[in-house]
Amino acid sequence: MPVLSAVVANLAAYAALLGSSDEPDNLARLLATALPQWHRDALCREHPEVSFFTELGASTAPAKALCRRCLVRDECLSYALADPHLEGIWGGTGPRERARLRRTQKAA
Ligand code: SF4
């Protein structure tokens, strides 16, 4: 799941910011800080069987099909467009599609 992967990737940075230990209340604070508000409505949370980080050459169609039905697709895409280092499918787009969208936004 893209959102969860982003959280895990950034968890060390948040932990350092909060001076965290691994106590449960600190972990809850970390997650509350790290998760975007729209994450609660993310359709991918309900479909762990769908991969949003596929091997090279594997189909991204199942993930993109799920994104098309997701209520927070716009928020997810905005989040991903703001971070050019994100891999995987976000907001129905892959990294190259997002790079193209960023160039289009800059040109406009
Ligand atoms: S748009 Fe796709 S990746 Fe983003 S939250 Fe929805 S299902 Fe997940």
Kindly give the count of domains: 1
Mean pLDDT across the residues is: 82
Q: SSE order, as H and E?
A: HHHHH
Structural class call reads mainly alpha
Low-confidence stretches: 6-18
Oligomeric composition of the shown chains:
single chain
What small-molecule ligands were found?
A: iron/sulfur cluster
* Proportion of residues in helical segments: 40-55%
CA-based gyration radius: 15 Å
Number of helices: 5
Q: What fraction of the residues are assigned to beta strands by DSSP?
A: under 5%
Number of strands: 0
State the distance separating the first and last CA atoms.
31 Å
Structure, described:
The protein is an all-alpha fold. It has one domain (2-107). The chain has five helices and no strands. Helix 1 packs across helix 2. The protein is globular, with a radius of gyration of 15 Å. Mean pLDDT is 82; it is low at 6-18.
Task: Please tag this protein with its features.
binds iron/sulfur cluster, 54% helix, globular, mainly alpha, 108 residues, 5 helices
